[in-house]
Amino acid sequence: MGDQPYNPGSDGAQMDFRAAMSYGDYLHLDGILQQQHPLSDAHDEMLFIIQHQTSELWMKLAIHELSAARDALHAGQMSQMFKMLARVARIFEQLNNAWDVLRTMTPADYTRFRATLGPSSGFQSYQYRLIEFVLGNRNPNMVKPHAHVPGVAAILEAELARPSFYDEVVTLLFAEVDGPDPTPDPQLNTPHSARPEIQARWKTVYENVDRHWTLYELGEKLVDLEDYFRRWRFNHVTTVERVIGFKRGTGGTSGVQYLRRMLEVELFPELWHVRGDL
After folding, report:
1. Total domain count for the chain?
2. Distance between CA 27 and CA 261 in Å, rounded?
3. Is the pLDDT of residue 102 over 60?
4. What CATH number does residue 183 fall under?
C-alpha cells in the first residue's frame, strides 16, 4: 500500500474537469501565461517582463481598493475604508518585495536586451499615474504620454476633474474639526501643496486623540500608506542605479536623477509636517 501513489480523488477531490470549471478556467491562466513575449534571446528578459506585468496587476488591485475606499468615505463607512487603505499599504509592501527579485539582474544581464525596449518605460505606466492622481500628486503633463490611447487619457483626465482622495479627507477633516478657516478648495490640476490651515486641523486631531479618534486613525492609515509608497519609490531608485547607473531612462527621462526628484514628493504633507508641531 505504501508503494501506491496517493490519489486525492480517493479523499473526495474532484479530478475530472471535462464538464466543470477548473482553477485555470476561473483565472483564465491560458490567456495570462501566454502574454510574455521576449524580443531577444536574453535569459533575463523574461524576469523583466513578468516583474512589470505582475506589478501592473497589483496596481490594478490598488486602484480597485482606492476607488472603493473613496466611495466608502462618501458613504460614511469608515471601518470599511480603513480596511481598504490598509490593504493598499500592503499591496505596496508586495510591490516593494518585487524589487528584490529584479535586483538579481545584473547590468550585464540587462544590457543584453535593453535596446529591444525602444522608448517604452515604466514612466509610461498609466495605472501608476492614476494612483498618484487619486492620492493627490497631480501633474496634467503626465497625461501627454497617453494621448495616443484616447480611452486611457480620458480616464486620467476624468480623475483630474474630481477631488482627489486626500481632498475628500480634508473636506471631512474641516467638517469634523472646528477652526477659523473655511474648507480649502480641492487642488485638482496640481500636486497637493501643504497648507497651514490643513496642518492646523490635523494638529487639533493629534492633540485631542480621544475626541477625534476616527480622524486620528484615518491620518495614521494615510501615513502608513505613504510610508510604503515612499519605500517603493526609494527601491525603484536604488534598483535603477544598481542596474544602469546614471544612464538616461529608455523613455527619455534623466533616469536616476528623475527618480530621485520624485523622492521629494509628499502625498499628504500636512500629516508629516504636523509631527514637528506636537
Report:
1. 1
2. 39
3. yes
4. 1.20.58.480
224 falls within a domain = yes
Give the residue-averaged pLDDT of 244-249.
Answer: 64
Per-position DSSP letters for 257-272, written without gaps between them:
HHHHHHHT--SSHHHH
- What span, in angstroms and rounded, lies between the C-alpha atoms of 13 and 66? 37
CA gap 133, 267 in Å, rounded: 10
- Residue range 156-176, pLDDT digits in tens: 999 999 999 999 999 999 999
User: How far apart are the C-alpha atoms of 249 and 277, rounded to whole Å?
Assistant: 40
Q: Which grid coordinates are listed for 217? A: 486613525
Domain carrying residue 192: 41-277
Residue 225 burial (CB < 10 Å; 0-12/13-18/19+)? buried
Residue 230 lies in a domain: yes
184: left (phi over 0), alpha (psi -120 to 50) or beta: beta
Query: Treating both helix axes as pointing N-terminal to C-terminal, what angle do 126-135 and 165-176 enclose, rounded to 10 degrees?
Result: 10
Region 218-224: mean pLDDT is: 97
Q: Tell whether pTM > 0.90.
A: yes
240: Cα separation from own chain's centroid: 18
The answer to whether the CB of 172 falls within 8 A of the CB of 73 is yes
pLDDT at 1 over 60: no
Residue type at position 174: F
Give the residue ranges of DSSP H helices in the chain. 23-27, 29-33, 45-74, 78-102, 107-111, 126-135, 150-160, 165-176, 196-207, 213-244, 256-263, 269-273
Tell me the DSSP string of 98-160: HHHHHTTS-HHHHHTTGGGGTT--GGG-HHHHHHHHHHT---GGGGGGGTTSHHHHHHHHHHH
